[in-house]
Amino acid sequence: QVQLVESGGGLVQPGGSLRLSCAASGTIFSPYTMGWYRQAPGKQRELVARITNAGNTNYADSVKGRFTISRDNAKKMVYLQMNSLQPEDTAVYYCKLTTIIPRSNDYWGQGTQVTVSS
Length: 118
Prior knowledge:
mainly beta, 53% strand
């Protein structure tokens, strides 16, 4: 069974930075994609950034130039460096892992709260 555990959320002032981490455990066959999603109160969950096994990335327009996603395949970790945080970045951030082998499956973490406020 694949499990994902996020960490690194918290309260930060506008303009500040946070680094989220997500640790995957269990039997996971490469290749797989990892990503970060977020859900603000009253809104739908949305993609923030994702990264393929080969390191190809894509970002939501709202975070381009401010957030950076990276991964460590050996450790089965994915990270999200968030800079220049704004109040509109406040949300619960979820880690997602998508496998292809032996079948296409999505796995989600429990989420970590990020609050940007003065």
